[in-house]
Amino acid sequence: MGTITPSIYEQQMLELKRMKECSDAIKEVLDGMRLVNVPSAVEHYVGKLHMLTDNADPKVRIHVEEEIYAARKRVGSLPQTANETQVAGEHYRTTIQHWDYVLANDLGYFEGQITKYVTRWRKKNGLEDLRKARHFLDKLIESESGR
Questions:
Q1: Based on the number of CB atoms within 10 Å of its own CB, is 68 exposed (0-12), middle (13-18) or buried (19 or more)?
Q2: What is d(CA 138, CA 116) in angstroms, rounded to the nearest whole number?
Q3: Domain boundary among 84, 119, 135
Q4: Range among 33-37, 90-94, 115-119, 143-147 rated most confident
Q5: What is the pLDDT of residues 109-124, one digit of tens each?
Q6: What values do phi and psi take at 70, rounded to 5?
Q7: Listed residues 84, 105, 135: the one ending a domain
Q8: The domain containing residue 103 runs over which residues?
């Protein structure tokens, strides 16, 4: 184990404080959402919650999504289709859902993966996503070449 320097300790304390503040903000918004009975008001809180939890721990996001589902169910505003439901981060919010693009263009698995990574690389993982796209392209070329 290494020694914790005062600057590392300060950074850790600041991070813990930020996490607590974020947690308190999420709880406050959830409490507000539980009190409203109008779909538009629930959606107002949903927007706030998505901003607060975009980079949160997956367990926190799952809990928040369960709360959102319960609130939408309570006010009768559950989405009717998979496209009306947004799960996870901003990199999935596009003018056309990727799965609709894949289906409309009759793409196979590798082609779907390639277009997914190429479409989202600027908003999510940068060059890592481009490398993933290239990896799937290499496999598609091997497959089509009979290798």
A1: buried
A2: 15
A3: 84
A4: 115-119
A5: 999 999 999 988 888 8
A6: -60, -40
A7: 84
A8: 90-145
